[in-house]
């Protein structure tokens, strides 16, 4: 679809009806109409051409008299005609996100791009009543305005080879499309429905739906709502699926997938249907066999029925994400399906199903009022998913998950400077950008980095857990029930705008509901964790005062470094003494560090008495290790994780050992394992070995103990006695009694011991001897495990176990000892390495004959080969990985191969490989792979902004700039990935490898003057007049400055009436003929004319206009930031900058603007009107075309 550049001031027909609209503060103040019902009819899906043809019909209810234009969202759709109540209607299509900064702009700094991108997204933001498609309501329909008649907007559109929104998977094999398994499905990040049909793409605009899809007779179309009927055409070659969704739903929650699916009706719940690609039905049956349990669990805790009348799961190939939830259906990756033989995938698939179902209640059925309220939905769905996890997988798994999520989020916040759950904009200077520490804006979901959004979801559910700690789970579930029951009452009403708003949740309504139900004030908690970003960092240490029998605890905080905040409030401390475990709640004040905690027990020696633990258990302990004077066994700060924090606590090694052995909470055990790495002593070794032997200990704790034991063994190398760590244990548990080096035949009946058997060899391979090599007997032991592995009698697959054994071989590798000038060949390989290489080659070849589930062994082999290369055993060469990364291989294999290529690029500084990767980002058919390449390059960058590198050159800067500026407009996530990579490589300012711009202007906004950049000295012998001439020719893109081209009055032309469009073009052609500045010849560029519909021609020129910067222009008022940056300016941009465009003022973030307020009087005097049109003439969000040569930063 061509982008259409508007180069006009406001046109009268398109102005907002000013007389009626009060300046309300409501977020949706710009929305002059509500959609009440929408029909989507796709009557042709062509898999050969990857095209879609259809129409939509929106029933729109105006909320103002004389509604004269309608704004809708639509991206990449080609629009053929628009009719409003059967009358042809003119329309304008303009998508400023196609190209964020104009291609002629030489700007290359990220600050500039980020603000330009935010403004472009704001310009078409449906929540503010904007859109890419502006339709003029025919004037015949205005007359009936007083009755507020319903408008029916009918739009015919097509999509040709869509790059986003819909994904066609067409395998390149023989046979018809159905035989080839060709299918198509909708996808996207956040609200992306506009990519495949015109709609109001906002989560807060609800309406009822009728969906019709005509497909080949061999295909099935799955969409939201109830399938009412399926009608065949006369020739029986096609059939139409009719779906109806009577529950008001946002367009963003509508989806479609079409393919030759096999269908399975859930045997336990007949209203649930599952769809998968041909020949996968047995896997589908097994994977879905426990879905009904998840339904029962959610319905029971929420005391509320599942809100829709049906639920559909569709499994597709090349999915964008593992799980995407839409109203009454979810689209999953087909890679989640597994048979009964697979152990490791089972819990992962169950977790994905549970997440999808939680989002049906909160996310699809209950939607959000605005982006600022997203945290409530993500928080509630994540929180109830956690409850499911606790019930199904047990409290240990749940607490382990909470600790994992908390650690991940804390690490991210400390690195990036914080995650803000509830951003508020407008107000003061600080409010315009509440997160100055980030290199992207958090004003819209579409400008966020993917990692940030992941951490945002993680923080949201952790905060919900903090609220539950504060008000109790019972009240928490009552609040959810109240939200759901209000929504389900509202959903059954006929359209009344105020009723349906009960189906939208906002931060305010959620908090109000909490205080109504629980009667508790959680204001401080919300202020601390929701309204501000950052986490808390505690350091703890203690001393025992024997005289007073008091524990003197010191808790310090670091609240100055990035991503940290100061905590004031209660904190729980658990002290395990000889007489039992005691909880103390301390109050952290502004400056109190020391806390005295009285001890309950006196120290005692020689008295044999059992020691009571936290859970009421009484155990015998060997107390010989502990301090004779002190009754303290161990101390824990904030054991319930009821603060979002990082704790570093210092206590003696024997206390950590007691904590590991006897504390029954998995989080405490994991903390002590981490701490014991610093205490390599025989006592630590014993404690860890004991844990490994305890069958009742949680398996993840035992897995952690394996790796800790390997680290301790390496530190104790010289004093270690006996066989290598874990070897005798492994032999005792898993090998034959008669022949200890032969492993027993596999029976993975006990999952606990299966996970231990998988992990131990991998940890053992990390052991090193005095020469820093892997001990010979460990290596032979691992090779024997591979050699004698026998899975014949096992009912479970051993593919994950075999893959881990290859990982163990990889871990055993150490750098090669290079002899100078020696050519590395396979012949002169070290003997041990040769054995490893042979084993890897054999496994890789076996995989080709008998592929394992998800190709786990290939993945491990590729990693191993890369490690052999990195350690200098075999020549470093990316060609093997490049062949495995090609499209057609299984996705996990491709990702592993690409990871190796990314690593090669960094180590060998290879520009060829970097180019190859970037080409793949632009051309690969699979969206997930493109995303992975960019995120892997971001994690393991070829160079960083800190270091010089031959890879850093102008061509690369241009290529990446082009990629994020216009190459990724079809996929929000990919664009943000590109921004992240750009930031990692070059930082926020102009990349260092670029030459300084030859000429720059410095804009002094306070004095409203443009000055030659003082840092750029004119060259000797250069004529100064010539220079000034150049300067004056620069078109200055600053808000409030206009070019001579733009000052030509264009208001007389009414572009909307068809008979005037020719006049409009002639007028512009005439302007082109005149010289723009006396004495200078205008630069002639071919003009482009685009036919948009039968009766509307739009024209834009490629002319770069020169303009004289004279005092008259410079003295125009300086305006505030454009609509995307401040509340009070939004209204004015609404009236004057309708055709939003993406030309950007260079550094408007850095310059502090004076506040410029003018209340909109409805009848402007002409001067005011003049000023208004200048004010936004060149603002990023306005429709002004600004061409600008480079300006220095």
From TrEMBL:
One GO cellular component, as annotated: transcription factor TFIID complex
Region (Disordered): 1118-1193
InterPro entries in alphabetical order: Aminopeptidase_N-like_N_sf, ARM-type_fold, Ig-like_TAF2, Peptidase_M4/M1_CTD_sf, TAF2, TPR_TAF2_C
CDD domains: M1_like_TAF2
Claim: Cell membrane is one of the keywords in the record: no
Keyword Thylakoid: no
Record key words, sorted: Nucleus, Transcription, Transcription regulation
Transcription initiation factor TFIID subunit 2 Ig-like domain segment(s): 534-651
GO BP annotations listed: RNA polymerase II preinitiation complex assembly
A Pfam family matched in the record: TPR_TAF2_C
Coiled-coil stretches noted in the UniProt entry, renumbered to this chain: none
Chain intervals with Basic and acidic residues compositional bias: 1165-1174
Residue stretches of biased makeup (Basic residues): 1137-1164
Domain Transcription initiation factor TFIID subunit 2 TPR repeats: 653-1011
Biased composition (Polar residues): 1175-1193
Compartment(s) where it occurs, according to its Swiss-Prot or TrEMBL record: Nucleus
GO molecular function: chromatin binding; RNA polymerase II general transcription initiation factor activity; transcription cis-regulatory region binding
Family as reported in the entry's similarity comment: Belongs to the TAF2 family.
Name under which the protein is recorded: Transcription initiation factor TFIID subunit 2
Organism: Oncorhynchus mykiss
